[in-house]
Amino acid sequence: MNTPTALIIEDEALPRQRLRDGLAQLWPQLQVLADAEDGDHGLALALDLRPDIVFVDIRLPGLDGLSLARRLKGLAHIVFVTAYDAHAVQAFEHGAIDYLLKPLAEARLRETVQRLQQRLQWPPAQLAQWLQQWAPPTLAPAGMPPPPAAPLRWLQASQGERLHLVMAADVTHFRSDNKYTCAVTAEGEFLLRLSLRDLLAQLDPGQFWQIHRAVVVNLAHVARVERRLTGMEVLLKGSDARLPVSQSFQSRFKPM
Predict the structure, then answer these.
(1) CB-based contacts of 146: which residues, under 8 Å, 6+ apart?
(2) What is the CATH classification number for the domain harbouring 185?
(3) Backbone angles phi, psi at 14, to 5 degrees
(4) Which end of the chain has the least Cβ crowding within 10 Å, N or C?
(5) What value does the mean pLDDT of the chain take?
(6) What is the CA radius of gyration of the chain?
(7) Residues 113-126: what's their mean pLDDT?
């Protein structure tokens, strides 16, 4: 059998390098021909290099991963890389599609490698029907505004080397941590690989309020709001934590 080849299409440098390193360790015979940081460049490379396998992130600048898979039309085995919530993961499982969750877990990558090694004996699966059934929620008919996406109910978060599914309702507040976000719950703190700004756009605006440039609070966990000489603070139920409210967000609490 010829040396198997692959292409990685991922816009974030750290997940891209981790995938490369993981594949090199678990499948040293696999030759990664190239990688791309956006969908348009990735599609051009895939059509030019004709790899056996394409690892593609769903959310990409330009052409998204699902649209890219449609364009390839069965030319390669596809593995979607996703940081989507549990609803999307469930859709992948029902469609028997290979997928990897970010942050990458070695055990999950090992399973995918083993499946791919067997699937290379057959032509790539035709994904057209599955892709038509599961379209990204942002797509809408021409001339029509996209329907609003449902707020996130589950969050994929890491704690050390372990991946967890955390209910958004259980999060007392979110705290910005550079490009990532810390989700604080009664069970501890979890790291989300999303900026606070990107996360806020996916949360229920009636339940989660931004009170500081680096803090978003879950109103269901707010015990009271206090005005002090140093400014306004939010106190949480069953916690000694005091969350500062920036001047620009204090007007939200005046009617309360």
Answers:
(1) 137, 138, 139, 140
(2) 2.40.50.1020
(3) -65, -50
(4) N
(5) 84
(6) 21
(7) 86
Burial bucket for residue 65 (CB in 10 Å: 0-12, 13-18, 19+): buried
Q: What angle do CA 234, 238, 241 make, to 5 degrees?
A: 40
- The CATH number covering residue 128 comes to 3.40.50.2300
Q: Based on the fold, state whether residues 40 and 127 are members of the same structural domain.
A: yes
Within a domain: 141: no
What pLDDT sits at residue 215?
96
Burial class (CB in 10 A: 0-12, 13-18, 19+), 208: buried
**pLDDT tens string 70-81:** 888 888 999 988
Show the domain range for 127: 5-133
Looking at residue 87, its pLDDT comes to 47
What's the pLDDT tens digit per position in 163-217? Answer: 777 888 999 999 998 778 999 999 899 998 888 988 898 899 889 999 999 999 9
Q: Among residues 157, 90, 119, 94, which one has the least CA distance to residue 4? A: 119
Tokens representing residue 157 in the block: 């978060």
Both tokens assigned to 168: 């958004």
Q: Is the pTM of this model over 0.70?
A: no
Cis-peptide, bond into residue 28, ω within 30° of zero? no
Gap between the Cα atoms of 208 and 204, Å rounded? 6
